[in-house]
Design a protein that fits this description.
single chain, alpha/beta, 7-stranded mixed beta sheet, 6-stranded mixed beta sheet, 20 strands
Length: about 400
């Protein structure tokens, strides 16, 4: 085995990283051997010690230079990657029901920082986000192919994270014949997306449990509003349960996919294109009412400094939603931003209820599903938080 270069940690970072926190920031690095190539695997040690703390990818130019893979002295080879994929699949065995779509790898939470893989039927969607996994892409792709046995796979490595790593954006087929329309099912709905037109890996699997929860609360014939709908997973489930669903989004391609999915499932969903808050104001002006509303915006806080502005958007949207919500109706407010806490959602909702001159009961707080694991050692792996309210 080729001798790996060494990265030495500052004293204050040793305990945190030895405790299986997988990120080393620039201020954590005391020094690094000369000549380390972006994404090269390194040994991590403490100052003045020869004891190995961990092994991981190092990118001297990266926003997060150190990404840890293992806390043991082991080779990072095909056997390693196959073992990680196999363990991830075993972790999910029997936990995801009534669908053939599932997240297979959830980056650091599955021990592979920078790798996202979602399975839709026999097709795999893959993202490789940092210089380390880019350097090992052939090994990782082979491990995924061997362990998942997916018939085909496509890549959507077109996220901003790659640019921060000094990498080009990459999309295309990884293996097999990727269909123009990837099809899968969720409960009694047949769903689909176009691999190269869809956002991220194709479909937001992380809201699966919340879609089921909201569908269980709708009344046949009652109004259901899906704000920031994307391809309308909430709307389709609600319509299948008998609600009169309306979806709002500013992505025309997503709304077209929603309408096509509704037709293929024998359903009707009304769509409104445009800015969510403006559309809410227009509906309110038209005196529309709903028995259930979902407010699920895209990431509004990519940095901690974004949180106050994001809370104001949640407050404005929730106030409008509460004014249109029937007495006894349900409102779900959801965020996929790590920096926005449950308390932030509750604060925004509390202000919104006051502005709407009503009160609401907190019925539930939900998190991401089992195929998007949250590890205690990786606080960033908890990202999806939702509160369910009942209007008084």
């Amino acid at each position: 085995m080729k001798k790996s270069p060494t990265v030495t940690l500052q004293a204050q970072a040793v305990r945190r990283i030895a405790g299986r926190y997988p990120f080393g920031h620039s201020g954590d690095i005391a020094r690094a051997d000369d000549g380390i190539q972006p994404g090269e695997v390194v040994n991590v040690r403490a100052e003045g010690s020869t004891r190995l703390i961990a092994r991981g990818y190092f990118n001297p130019q990266g926003a997060t230079p150190l990404r840890l893979l293992t806390w043991q002295d082991e080779d990072i080879d095909l056997k390693f990657y196959r073992a990680r994929v196999k363990a991830a699949l075993a972790r999910r065995e029997g936990r995801i029901q009534n669908t053939d779509a599932m997240r297979v790898l959830h980056a650091e939470a599955d021990g592979l920082p920078g790798v996202i893989a979602d399975r839709f039927g026999s097709v795999l969607s893959v993202q490789l986000r940092n210089a380390g996994v880019e350097r090992h892409r052939d090994l990782i792709v082979k491990a995924l192919k061997d362990e998942t046995r997916a018939a085909s796979a496509f890549e959507r490595s077109d996220t901003g994270e790659r640019r921060k790593e000094g990498l080009d954006l990459v999309t295309g087929t990884l293996w097999g014949d990727v269909p123009e329309r990837v099809e899968f099912f969720e409960d009694d709905l047949n769903l689909h997306f176009a691999p190269m037109d869809a956002q991220k890996t194709g479909f937001f699997l992380d809201q699966r449990d919340n879609r089921r929860l909201m569908a269980s609360l709708v009344r046949p014939g009652a109004g259901f509003l899906d704000v920031y709908s994307y391809t309308g997973g909430f709307s389709l489930h609600a319509a299948k349960a008998g609600a009169k669903a309306t979806a709002i989004d500013k992505d025309n391609v997503a709304l077209a996919a929603l309408e096509q999915a509704a037709r293929s499932n024998g359903l009707q969903v009304g769509v409104r294109w445009g800015d969510a808050l403006e559309a809410l104001a227009a509906l309110e002006k038209d005196r529309r009412t709903f028995s259930a509303i979902v407010l699920d915006p895209p990431t509004l806080a990519k940095r901690r400094d974004d949180v106050p502005r994001a809370k104001r958007i949640f407050t404005d949207g929730a106030a409008s939603a509460l004014r249109m919500l029937e007495s006894g109706g349900h409102l779900m407010i959801s965020t996929c931003a790590h920096y926005i806490r449950v308390d932030d959602l509750l604060d925004a909702a509390r202000v919104a209820a006051a502005e709407a001159n009503t009160d609401a009961e907190v019925l539930d707080v939900t998190y991401q599903p089992a195929d998007h694991p949250h590890l205690l050692s990786v606080p960033e792996s908890l990202y999806l938080k939702s509160i369910l309210l009942r209007k008084a």
